């Protein structure tokens, strides 16, 4: 029986190995298979590891932070909108330029094409400013990819500006050629921008999964007396870290509980500063109100999940999501 069992095991292992080798292998004869063989994602992934770009990103980041934008900075970040403003603003230049490219294929549309190209160049300026504002408060790996994204878009703006000048001077064919070159550069920039958003999660609400991974109902965190007064504490509820702040008695003595990972870039709020009923993230300075999790300052555009609290008869602290 033993040799038979070994033979069965060997055959089973061989079958498993063969199956594992075939897992995810694209079929070369299908469109999906051909697309998956294109060398697209690997070079863009490599940008995040290109630390040589840090000599560029560092001074640029400092320059963006030094801009005297005042309250305009929060406007550009999109906190009032609930998500970054940059993707919305980008629609205008891209739409104008794409429309100009279509009109350039038709007769008698020179004036309309020129207006659209110029409109796109002007609209690209606030879109770029919003993008730089977001970029300055990202992680180093994201900044490396982002600066290449910005370089491609800057090239596109330059080509379209040259296209506009050529069209004004009556050099129709030169203007069209420059326009299509600009669209190529903008498309490359858009691809890298998509990589930033969906692969590197720039602008994504990092706290969004919390309501989906915390079980319903009340959960005990321990005794209220276990948490220091006026200081941020960290407690792990299952796989979700929580920020726990016990207010002084003169401030009401309530216990405030938020998700600990900042919605902006997953910074630990429990390592931040608590003052005036708010907590400031130590990573990029986003400010959240402890009472309701509202984001009231900094680069975060989404609020923090806030937990309801109650004190049990034995002095235990219990929390649940609303």
From TrEMBL:
Residues 1-15 have a biased composition (Basic and acidic residues). One of its GO terms (molecular function) is 2 iron, 2 sulfur cluster binding. Residues 219-318 form the Rieske domain. It comes from Streptomyces cacaoi. Keywords: 2Fe-2S, Iron, Iron-sulfur, Membrane, Metal-binding, Transmembrane, Transmembrane helix. Gene3D superfamilies: Rieske [2Fe-2S] iron-sulphur domain. This is Rieske domain-containing protein. Residues 1-23, 301-322 are annotated as: Disordered. The chain crosses the membrane at residues 115-135, 147-166, 178-198. PROSITE patterns: RIESKE. CDD domains: Rieske.
